[in-house]
Amino acid sequence: MTYLLRRLEFFVVTLWAALTLNFILPRLLPGGPEVALRTRFHGRVNPAAIKSLEVALGVNNNDSPFQQYLSYLGNLLHGDFGVSIGFFPKHVVDVIMLALPWTVGLVGMATVIAFVLGTLIGIVSAWRRGGVLDSVLPSIFVVTSAFPYFWIGLICIYVFSITLGWFPQAFGSSSEVSSEWSWTYISDVLVHSILPAFTIVLTSIGGWVLTMRNNMITTLAEDYVKMARAKGLSPARIMFHYAARNAILPNLVGFAMSLGFVISGALLVEIVFNYPGLGTFLRQAVNNEDFPLMQSLFLLITLAVLLAVTAADFLTAWLDPRTRERA
Amino acid sequence: MGLDVRLVADQSAVKADPARRPDRSFLNVTNAVRSNRKALAGAIILGIFVLVAVFAGSLAPYDPHAQIFDQVLGPSPSHLLGTTGNGQDIFSQLVWGTRESLAIALVAGLMATLLSMLIGVAAAYLGGVTDHVLSLVTDVFLVIPTLPLMIVVAAYARTGGLAVLIAVIVITGWSYGARQLRSQGLSLRNREFLDAARVRGERNWYVIVFEMLPTMTSLIVANFLGAALYSVLAAAGLQFIGLGNPNDMSWGTMLFWAENNGALNAGSPLWAITPGLCIALLGAAFALLNYAFDEISNPALRPIRMRKENRIAHS
Predict the structure, then answer these.
(1) How many Å apart are CA A19 and CA A30, to the nearest integer?
(2) Which residues constitute the domain of residue A99?
């Protein structure tokens, strides 16, 4: 129980830290936002938008910083994230809801594929210790882990889309296909998602493989695996039911965590492919100096990660009795 | 055995003070680089980039900023990698870009490592409430998603240039190392040589800096390599979306301009491919060195063949 309580404490503290960072940053770094507000928007933007910006940045506000902080927290509690500047007069929440399904669909799918494939490869490569898979793959993944993943996206675009013409180069769907639930639309969306998803899988699979392989190697040395061999069980049974089942825990926990990182993990890939997800919106928010949208995206992403991390902690406590005892 | 011979030669000064442990960490590091193929490959790549950065002026044939050539030329003897959509020589940009990209990696990596050393080791050594607070802060920074945080900070402080870029990378990059160093520090806490220092009446900061840190050299170097890798990728990502100073010459800003000019479609793909390749190579150099250090500190992960070779080499 103390373990879970401690994790809850961590959840609350981190959430508070993120909210406070979001509040303090624009006020700590003067010049940028305030100057932008004055020079870029004065006279051109609707007064309501200016008001939203002023609230977000704490400009032209006669309240004390502490009062501002309280009303900021109050607004968030009511789900009031302000009005977007770039998509005026839409509310920030509505803008985010436009992008969220795209990101969750694309990155969620890619994450599941990478997890399943990577874990399987890790199991097999540890089982055949010293085999081709085992001696080649780790080195390759160490090198690919150093690649900027948005650049892999650029290469994929150049090879598969521009040179070979197999896949569309950008966007989530074609403009000529109307966005209703028809087979043409769904297949169009799928075709558009192949390249970005491939990029994400390619760049994230290495972590799964290496973790699984290293855990498998430790587990395979355990006595109960030797016992299973001595009993003459089939290799497949030993591999999956005895070794992999015990070695998979860190990967499962990592998977729970990565579901939270779904929202933040592929921001740059989305940007490269002009995919209509959160990453592209975040870039637009930065370019338009749409600070309310930018702050809300940051909060949303942090919250998602935090929820996932906490879920992963609970999952560990549930699956691994040793964690509960240690606390 | 060669290693031990050198150590014995170095030890005359150490022997006088039996409470002090011989510092073999540094020798371990150099020896490790030489005996591990991954580490050797990483060191060679890194060395080449350092040379290019130092001698950029004599290696680059043209001024990287000068827009004086025909646009979108293919590779030729006078323009090894062709020219950009703005009529600049891509090879010269690449050579000059090495300087800033490498500098960011080394400086940001070093500063992040220093910060994680300070916080991680202090938490481990001081213990109690200090440890609780420092660990909590570390965990908070570990969890807050770095890329969005970097983007937000860089967007607010857009006028800050290179210093802000490095600061952002350091702020978001120190926490992982701090956690690692804290765990190692905890395992050292009750060793006799620290007790001896305490009995001598040394101050806390002296024990941390002169007693604890030297014994952790391997892990600190590994941490630096990880932080440098992180810095390379983070800087590239931030500059790519235009959050550096776009007028600087670095690989990230090259990618930014290439993307903005649609280099892939406009017939100058090398403009986008080569800087990314350099980032990948530099990153790979750090990653290879880092992985080699992992193998050295955790023998179970070594390839089977290599373990045998090592046994022979050390016997």
Answers:
(1) 19
(2) 92-326
